[in-house]
Design goal:
The chain is α+β, with helices and mostly antiparallel strands. It has nine helices and 13 strands. It is elongated, with a radius of gyration of 38 Å.
Amino acid sequence: MSSQDIPEENLPAEQADAHGHGAVAVANEDNPFADPGLPPHEHRIQDIDERAAKRSERVVAMLFTLSMLATVAFIASYVTIPNDKSIFVFPLGHISALNFALGMTLGVALFSIGAGAVHWARHLMYHLEISHQTNTIESDPQVNANLLGHIKKGAKESALGRRKLIRTTMFGALALFPLSGVMLLRDLGPLPGTKLRHTIWSKGKLLVNMNTNEPLRPSDIAVGSLTFVKPEGLEEKDEDFQQEIAKAAVMIVRLQPENIKDKRELAWSHEGIVAYSKICTHVGCPISLYEQQTHHVLCPCHQSTFDLSDGARVIFGPAGHALPQLRIGVNDEGYLEALGDFDEPVGPAFWERG
C-alpha cells in the first residue's frame, strides 16, 4: 500500500510549503542556478497505518532482542567451548570452534543493534526533509534557542518515549553488549593463587649442578666461585621445566664464614656456602655476574647489585628487596641438600605479595 491509495483526509496534516516540498524554481538569466527545492513528500505506510507502525516496532524490538541473545551466546561460548577444539566449516575447513562461535555471536550482536537502529530510523522516526539556509558560522542567541528547540523536538519525534517496546529492548541490547568485552578480561587470569609464593624446592632435594647435572658436595665448591644449581628431579625435557626453573633457579657461592655479616645468612649456610635465588627482584632477570673481592652480584639487565655477604641486600639499582635465601645442609651421603623452600616469594614484587 502506498500513500497514493489513502484518502486525502487520512493523510497527516503538514505545512508542505513551509518545508519547500514540491516547490520548483525556474532558471533564468538572472538566476541561472535556481534552487529546484525538495521533491514532493511521499508518506510512509507507517505514517498512515498504525498497524504497520506496530509491525515495524515489533521488528525493531526483535532485532534488539536478537542482539541480547547473541551477547548471552557469546558469553556462554567463551566459558564453555575449549580453546583447543576444532570444527569443520565449509568452505573454511577446520577452524577453531571457539573463534568461530565468538565471531558469529559478536557479529550477530553488533549487526542486530545496527539493523534495529536503521529500521527504526527509516520506518518510525520523523522523516520529513527540512531545508534551512545557513549564513554565518557564529550563532546568535535566537539561533541557539531554535537549535535547542529542534533537539527537543527531534527527541520527541523519535518516538522513544511512546514506543516503550523499542526503548526497553534497545536499552537491554546496549546494556548487555559491553559484557562481551568484560568477558575478555578473563584471559588476564586465572588468579595466581599461591603459585608465586612457592617453588619446587623442599626438604631433602639435592642441589644439582646446572652444567653437569650432578649433585654437589661441599668439596666441589671453591671459595669465591659461583655455581648455578637446580632442584633434584627437574629435567629440561619436562614440559613445565621453563615455568619451574623460572622460580627455582639458585646460585651458590662459597665465602669465608668470617666474611658473612648477616647472622641468619650464616645459620642458613653450610661451611660458608650460601644459596640465593638467581631471579632478580626488579623485573625477574637472571643474575649472572659475581665479583669475588666485594661479594657482590650484579643483574645485567638494569644493574641492580646485591651484597651476598650481608643477606643479599640491595646496595644499588632499582630492585626493591633482597634476594631470598635457600636454607641448605648436607645429607648422610655428603651431598648438599635443601632444608625447605624459600621463606618468601622469589622474583619481583606482585599485587598479592603483601
